Every structure is written in C-alpha cells, then in structure tokens.
Prior knowledge:
alpha+beta; 5 helices; Arc Repressor Mutant, subunit A; two-stranded antiparallel ribbon
Amino acid sequence: MIGSMAKWTFLTNHAHVLMCVSQNSNVLLRDVAIQVGITERAAQRIVTELEEAGYLEREREGRRNSYRLNKSMPLRHPLDTDFRVGELLGFFARERAD
C-alpha cells in the first residue's frame, strides 16, 4: 500500500519548485531537482515557466541565481483563483514550524 501512495501527490511539481525557492532564494536548481524528484532540466523548465507567468523573478548574482517570488499571484486552477501563492506557501511553512 505504501508503494502505491508514492505514485501521485496532491501538489504539482510547479508547487514543489515554488516551495523550494521560498525556503531558499539562492537554491541551486540541482538541489531543487533532487528535493522535488525531477531532473535538473525539468526544474529549469519549471522555473522558466514560473518566471514567464510572473510567479517569480530570477536575478543573476555572480555565478548563481537569486529568486524572488511574487506571492500575490493567484493560483492558476479555476477552483483556486481566490487564493494567492503566498497563502499556499505560508500554509506549508506553518505546518513545518508546528
């Protein structure tokens, strides 16, 4: 039973990438990929999509990137548009702190 639970999750890889970036604005995409369980190329694609949609900004600092989240952006699914990214991230940050 436990093996079958790992085949799907409630949150998308996009949400997981946002969670990683919210925890560390200087995180390496290699580390994001490992934490989320995707390839580094997939992490790069997701970051690019999130950046193009306005959910995060990427700034080059020397040889590394720094990320800034736009927490006021709405969630994208029609059922979720009344909620903001910051609310979702805040919920998970609270849960980890408890």
